[in-house]
Amino acid sequence: MNRETKNILWLVPRSFLPVSDGASKANYSLLQDFYASSLKIKDISYQVTLVLFIDENNDSLLDSRDIYLEHFPWVEDIIFLKKKIMPKGAGRISSVIKNIFQTLPLTASFFDHRDNRMLIKFLAEKDKFDYIICDGLHVYSAVAKYFKRASYIYRSHNVEFDLWDLEEAPFITGLILLHQQKKIKKLELELCEKAQKVWTISQTDTKRYSDLLEGGKVTCTKFQYIPLAIDFSKREFSSSKEKKHFLFLGKLDWHPNLEGLIWFLDHIVPKLDEDIVIDIVGGGDFPKSRYSDLISSGKIIFHGFVEDLEPILQQTNASVIPIFSGSGTRIKVIDAISKNIPIVSTPFGVQGSGLSEDHFFSMNSISSWIETLNNWDQKSAELRSTLAQNQLEKLYSTENLYHSLNELREIY
Q1: Residue 220 has pLDDT above 70, yes or no
Q2: Closest C-alpha to 394, from 227, 198, 237, 235
C-alpha cells in the first residue's frame, strides 16, 4: 500500500535536552509521543524537520545535534536557529523603550533574529511543509511573515497573556507591563485564529480560548485538549532522617515561579524549624544576596540548574509549590506525583492538574504553610501521594495521549 507523506516543520523555543524541568519535559514528551502515535496510522508517514532556538551567545549547543538524533532518529533534519537574550541593566531599559514602537512583544521579538531570516525565507520558498507546529507561542514570531499561508498547529503551554500580573506593579512598571500584555494577547489570538488546531495542555485553557474566540462554544473542534504524557513510577523514596527536605523546582526566569519562591522565602522559611531544609532547583537568576542569611544558615540550598535530580529526589519529603499566578497545567505537580513525591501547594498551584484536595496538602494562608511543614506527617503525605498518583495516571499516561492524538485524524 502506498503511503502518503506529510511534512512537518516543528518549532521548539529552546534546547530541551537534557530534560530537566517542566517545559523541557513537555517539549520532549509531545515530540516523542506524537511519533509513537503516528506509527498507528497505516496510510500516512511523516517527515519532521525539528527547529530549536538557542541563545545567540551559546554556540556550544550546536554540537548537540548527535544527541538529539539519538533521541529522535526518525527526525529528517535538525536546525538550530538563534534567539536574542534579555540584556541586563541599561541594556534592558533600552530594549523596553525601543519595543514601545515595535509590533511584536519584547520577549517574542527575540525570536525574530536577523541571522535566521535568510534560512527561514529559504524554507518558506521551498513550500514543502504541510504543517507548522509551534510548540509555544514565541516561535511563531520567527516564521509568521514568511509562512503566511501555512497550516499552523499551536501547542499552547499556557494562556500566555494571562501570565502577566499587573496588580502589584508600580505605576510606570504597570503601564509597561500592560502594553506588553496587550501585544502578547494580540499575537496569541492571531495564532489561535490562524491555526487549524490549538492543542491545549489543560481543559481550563481550552475553555478560556473558546470563551475568547468562539463565544464559549467549548465543543469547537479547533481547540483540542492534548495532555502531557508521563511515565508513572511506583517506587518509594527514602527521606533523610536527620533533616526534612522540601523541594522547590522550577525555572526562575518564569515570573510565577520566581514570584512564588520569593513570597515563600520571605514569609514562610524564616519561621520553619531548624531541622527543615528547602532545596531550590532551577535555572535563572536567583537573588542570592537577598537571602544570604538563609543560605549561610543552611535553611535553603540553591542548586541552580541540575542535570540529574535523582540524588535530590531521594532525600525529598515533599515538593512545595507556592504559585499564585499563571495558567496551563502545573507540570511540576504531575512530575512530582509521577515519582511518588507528595505535594504541598496553594490551590492555584495545582490548577488544571486534575487533583482534588485529598490528593495534596492545600495551603491557604501563611499559618497553614508553617504549621504543615513544622509538623510534617510523612504517613499522611505518602497516602495523599498514592491517591494522587492513582488519579493522575488515568489522565496523563502515555496511552491517554495516544488516544487524544489519534482523534486528530485530519492531521494524519
Answers
A1: no
A2: 227
* Whole-number pLDDT of residue 412: 46
Nearest Cα to Cα of residue 352 among 335, 334, 328: 328
What percentage of the chain reaches a pLDDT higher than 90? Answer: 45
- Using one digit for the tens of pLDDT, what is the confidence trace for 102-135? 999 999 999 999 999 999 999 999 878 999 999 9
With beta carbons less than 8 A apart as the criterion, state whether 43 and 1 touch: yes
Distance CA 137, CA 125 (A): 23
Q: How far does CA 216 lie from the centroid of its chain?
A: 26
CB atoms within 10 A of CB 262: 16
d(CA 301, CA 287): 13
Rg of the chain over Cα atoms, rounded to whole angstroms, equals 22
CATH topology of domain 4-228+398-406: Rossmann fold (3.40.50)
Q: How many CB atoms lie within 10 A of CB 88?
A: 9
Quick one: what percent of the chain has pLDDT higher than 70?
A: 90
| Superfamily covering domain 244-396 | Glycogen Phosphorylase B; (3.40.50.2000)
Domain ranges of the chain: 4-228+398-406, 244-396
Which one, of 287, 300, 305, 292, lies nearest residue 251 by Cα? Answer: 305
